[in-house]
Design brief:
This protein is α+β, with helices and mostly antiparallel strands and 123 residues long. It has three helices and five strands; from the N terminus they run βαββαββα. It has one domain.
């Protein structure tokens, strides 16, 4: 199964949007480092932040998973980013090129738990 984790960039309040814009370079660097360190596991960076409107941004990772334990590292990464930068995250699966969200977690949504997310994904 191909899953994705994205930083929630839509429906943000002005204060949240401003903070996201300020932290964008650090978030991009952290996700790029994770993708490069896990290239052997086919982790791919999703970095579509060219628009002036951050509601259109897509920033995160995708990676194949076959067992629920494969979710531990990416969920821990995004929990850490949520704590450090005050963001929320979306997790879901990719089927036929389309993203289907299954859960949200982070600063406002609460800490993500890999086991529960695996259940939502049907792993």
């Amino acid at each position: 199964m191909l899953i994705y984790l994205l930083i929630a960039c839509d429906r943000l309040e002005d204060k949240q949007e401003k903070k996201l814009r300020q932290n964008l370079p650090e978030l991009q660097a952290a996700l790029q480092a994770y993708a490069e360190a896990n290239a052997a596991h086919e982790v791919t960076l999703i970095n579509e932040c060219e628009s002036d409107d951050c509601e259109d941004w897509q920033l995160g990772i995708s990676q194949p998973v076959t067992r629920n334990t494969h979710l531990n590292f990416p969920v821990d990464l995004f929990n850490g980013l949520a704590e450090q930068y005050g963001i929320d995250c979306e997790v879901g699966y990719i089927e036929d090129g389309a993203r289907e969200p299954v859960s949200y977690f982070g600063k406002h949504e609460g800490k993500g738990e890999a086991f529960l997310i695996a259940e939502y994904l049907g792993l």
